[in-house]
Amino acid sequence: xxxxxxxxxxxxxxxxxxxxxxxxxxxxxxxxxxxxxxxxxxxxxxxxxxxxxxxxxxxxxxxxxxxxxxxxxxxxxxxxxxxxxxxxxxxxxxxxxxxxxxxxxxxxxxxxxxxxxxxxxxxxxxxxxxxxxxxxxxxxxxxxxxxxxxxxxxxxxxxxxxxxxxxxxxxxxxxxxxxxxxxxxxxxxxxxxxxxxxxxxxxxxxxxxxxxxxxxxxxxxxxxxxxxxxxxxxxxxxxxxxxxxxxxxxxxxxxxxxxxxxxxxxxxxxxxxxxxxxxxxxxxxxxxxxxxxxxxxxxxx
Length: 301
Known about the structure:
The chain is α/β, with parallel strands linked by helices. The chain is built from 7 helices and 11 strands. It has helices at 34-42, 90-107, 123-138, 156-159, 190-202, 245-248, 285-300, and strands at 2-7, 18-21, 81-88, 114-119, 144-147, 164-165, 178-186, 207-215, 227-231, 239-243, 252-258. The strands form 3 sheets. Strands 5-4-7-8-9 form a 5-stranded parallel sheet. A 3-stranded mixed sheet has the order 2-1-6, with no helix packed on it. Helix 3 (123-138) links the parallel strand 4 (114-119) and strand 5 (144-147). Helix 2 packs across helix 3. The longest helix is centred in the first third of the chain and has 18 residues, at 90-107. The relative contact order is 0.15.
């Protein structure tokens, strides 16, 4: 099977569309050679949020808006679902992120040895917010990177024939550092497994931790989060939608449930018209004929 891989990133030289044969199992970074190497060496961003290939993002630096992936509009209710519960509004989401940033500072007072890596797409703005809040608490902000796990998904062949890559950006070496992977929702754990595989291809960190905004359960792999904003009990067919202002225009977390199946209404039989009431003492129509026949018989006699 062949899959067309499209790279969506500015590059100093034209990037050709590569056709790479896929086989079951992990797709390693080395199989794409120069393409992934360019993302590693020239995919860093300026501390002011400027151009690609201009040096690593410094403490508190911001990634360019285009690097967050496709920009979504206002949140729409998924087809066939309805809103069940608002888990977090804007204020509660901000308080939750501040609490998570405080927990990170308590465990890692020296932020120079830590790196925040957000899983695209909403994990990246979350990591940037955490870095800014850590700087307000500890004075120093850890470097921030972005991780695109598209090629490390175990369902890559089911995603589509043309997976779109937005690029992985890790501004510093992760060897010997504490890497904190940031994601919005922890569900089955398969996305986190892909992120771990990709991080190992970039170096040998001293420790890898996981920070998620919502843990909804239903794990399929032995993976747990070190920093959790909120734990929610959900049904497997429900959807937890995280909205961030940088990407969705508003902040919030909403839980959607499936709409109940619509049943066809049974047509009621038409009611029979009401019979007209007979005057009191008046015989029935059939009996009326018999009365007249008896009267004629008497007259004949």
